[in-house]
Design goal:
This protein is of the alpha/beta class. It has helices at 8-30, 45-60, 76-88, 107-113, 125-132, 141-153, 172-181, 196-201, 245-249, 262-286, and strands at residues 4-5, 35-41, 64-70, 94-97, 161-165, 185-189, 205-208, 226-229, 233-235, 238-240, 254-255. The chain has 2 domains: 30-117, Rossmann fold; 141-263, NAD(P)-binding Rossmann-like Domain (Rossmann fold, 3-Layer(aba) Sandwich). Strands 1-11-8-7-5-6 form a 6-stranded parallel beta sheet. A 3-stranded parallel beta sheet has the order 3-2-4, sandwiched between helices. Strands 9-10 form a two-stranded antiparallel sheet. β2 (35-41), α2 and β3 form a beta-alpha-beta unit. Bound molecules: NADPH dihydro-nicotinamide-adenine-dinucleotide phosphate. NADPH dihydro-nicotinamide-adenine-dinucleotide phosphate binds at residues 142, 165-168, 170-172, 189-193, 196, 209-212, 215, 230-232, 262-263, 266.
Length: 287
């Protein structure tokens, strides 16, 4: 029987269903909505789509959306000055700086400058450290979305062999940590891994975040596995993931499609993190 499709759009809708009530309650208590500032520097067309979708969704949910589009020539100091202003702005609860940044602006410095309690992407080194020590403040949005999709299958992670292909700070490493915290036995693979096919064939849970079409072939999937395909690639027929979907679907028990799998969850988790940030700041202001 072909795998059950894990519907990221439907899972994201479930998350959105709970948010307007929380946004309204926050607004009533505080006389203002929770606020998300999205900073975009440059002209990367893929980023433009991501930024637009994030702003659109935050407006739909009734958040205050603060738009900062800066030209590709903006200096690092100018971006840092903006971040400092947003850190001080009481109407801003979450700050998201869309990556990648132009070469003259250090991503590391910018991420470091964002106030810890407004770091809704969870990229600040201290927030990353907290995640790795099992006490996360903000879980980065894509890994958080992946874990929610895994939960939606009802498959228990405890004791299962989970293989994560890709070791980026953005996806692979945090996902591996979260799987470990849920008691899976985790193997991380990357471009130097030998016998990647054998590693994948052993996986009860397979998360692939590489960015190469058909990096994982259908017959590498263990029968009955749960497959989360994070990759976003473009081919002649549109978007596709890293896993050879049609063949993998014949073997897996559950699989995410691309598009419509992990992507919609990333934005949903950003909205959740923004509300969490707003509510946490409110709590501190009250005490
Ligand atoms: P990176 O380029 O930062 O990392 C890719 C990883 O894949 C690296 O660890 C690299 O290994 C590994 N890799 C490359 N080639 C191979 C190979 N042949 N076999 C095994 N491993 C390999 O990418 P990201 O983690 O940022 O993103 C991965 C994909 O996920 C991209 O397609 C991106 O667009 C997508 N993405 C999707 C999101 C969503 O919301 N759906 C959000 C974020 C990302 P090494 O470290 O050795 O170089």
């Amino acid at each position: 029987m072909p795998a059950q499709i894990i519907d990221g759009k439907a899972e994201a809708q479930k998350i959105y269903a709970d948010l307007p009530a929380r946004v309204n309650a926050f607004r009533e208590r505080n006389g203002r909505p929770p606020g998300l500032a999205v900073v975009w520097v440059g002209e990367d067309p893929a980023s433009q789509v991501y930024v637009r979708n994030k702003r659109k969704k935050s407006e739909e949910l009734g958040l205050a959306s603060f738009k900062h589009d800066l030209p590709a020539t903006t200096s690092e100091d100018e971006v840092l000055t903006l971040i400092e202003r947003l850190n001080q702005d009481p109407a801003v609860d979450g700050i998201l700086v869309q990556m990648p940044l132009p070469p003259q602006v250090s991503e590391e410095k910018i991420v470091h400058a964002i106030s810890l309690d407004k770091d809704v992407d969870g990229f600040h080194p201290e927030n990353r450290g907290r995640l790795f020590s099992g006490r996360p403040r903000f879980v980065p949005c894509t890994p958080a979305g992946i874990m929610t999709l895994l939960q939606s299958t009802g498959v228990a992670l405890r004791g299962k062999k989970a293989v994560v292909v890709g070791r980026s700070l953005l996806v692979g490493k945090p996902v591996a940590m979260l799987l470990l915290q849920d008691n899976a036995t985790v193997t991380m693979c990357h471009s130097r891994t030998e016998n990647l096919d054998a590693e994948c064939r052993a996986a009860d849970i397979l998360v692939v975040a590489v960015g190469k079409k058909s990096c994982v072939l259908g017959d590498w999937i263990k029968p009955g596995a749960v497959v989360i395909d994070v990759g976003i690639n473009r081919d002649e027929s549109g978007l596709c993931g890293d896993v050879a979907f049609e063949q993998a679907r014949e073997r897996a028990a559950f699989i995410t499609p691309v598009p419509g799998g992990v992507g919609p969850m990333t934005i949903a988790m950003l909205m959740v993190n923004t509300l969490k940030a707003a509510e946490a700041r409110e709590e501190i202001n009250r005490s």
